[in-house]
Amino acid sequence: MSTAPSPAPSWPDELFGVLQDFDVRQLAYVPDSGHAQLIRRAHQDERMTAISLTTEEEGVALAAGAWLGGQRAALLMQSSGVGNCVNMFSLLRACKLPFLTLVTMRGEWGEFNPWQIPMASATEPVLRAMGIEVQRIEQPDEAADVLRHAASMAYDGGAAMAVLLSQRLIGAKIFKL
């Protein structure tokens, strides 16, 4: 009796697996369709607490508190949310806390909303200016490796890390009337 091979995991599933491998226990997020699969997986995982936020900067404080309380957290946000976090990023820098965020990019490839473009071009420079190292995922086959590298730098090396998920990777949103 032969069985069909199981399908290869999708890149969001691979990212979730990396978060599990690094024992991330708290996953904070502002709802975003680019992170929908990660958010669903976090809600289904008994070892992980998924925390919906009202604004992204709450996630920076949550990640700091989780670390101080002996747990690992990660923050999921959209590129437009990076601008909301600048003041809170100073907490990471001043206290030298490890930090990991996954940022879905808007305002890039195929963007329909011109309001997303300015923050898209500012996201990486803003993160770097606040002392956060930036890695970028462009292709599905590099997703797990890039996140594994960033998570190791954050949780094992004490760095503040951001992983940008390109709009080409997550897919351009389409607006229809």
In short:
The protein is an alpha/beta fold and 177 residues long. The protein is built from seven helices and six strands, in the order αβαβαβαβαβαβα. Helix content is 46%, strand content 19%.
Describe the structure.
The protein is of the alpha/beta class. The chain is 46% helix and 19% strand. It contains 7 helices and 6 strands; from the N terminus they run αβαβαβαβαβαβα. A 6-stranded parallel sheet has the order 2-1-3-4-6-5, with helices on both faces. Helix 4 runs parallel beside helix 5. The longest helix has 17 residues. The radius of gyration is 16 Å and the shape is globular.
Strand count, sense and barrel status of the largest sheet are: 6 strands, parallel
Work out the radius of gyration.
Answer: 16 Å
Extended strand count: 6
The backbone outline, from C-alpha atoms, is: globular
Order of helices and strands: HEHEHEHEHEHEH
Tally of helical runs = 7
Helix content: 40-55%
Spatial order of the strands forming the largest sheet: 2-1-3-4-6-5
Low-confidence stretches: none
Euclidean distance between termini CA atoms: 50 Å
Structural class computed from helices and strand pairing: alpha/beta
How large a portion of the residues is in β-strands, by DSSP E?
A: 15-25%
Round the mean pLDDT to the nearest integer and report it.
92
Secondary-structure blueprint:
Elements: H1 11-21, E1 24-29, H2 36-44, E2 49-52, H3 56-68, E3 72-78, H4 79-95, E4 99-104, H5 117-129, E5 133-137, H6 143-156, E6 160-165, H7 167-170
Parallel strand pairs: 1-2, 1-3, 3-4, 4-6, 5-6
Helix pairs in contact: 1-2, 1-6, 3-4, 4-5
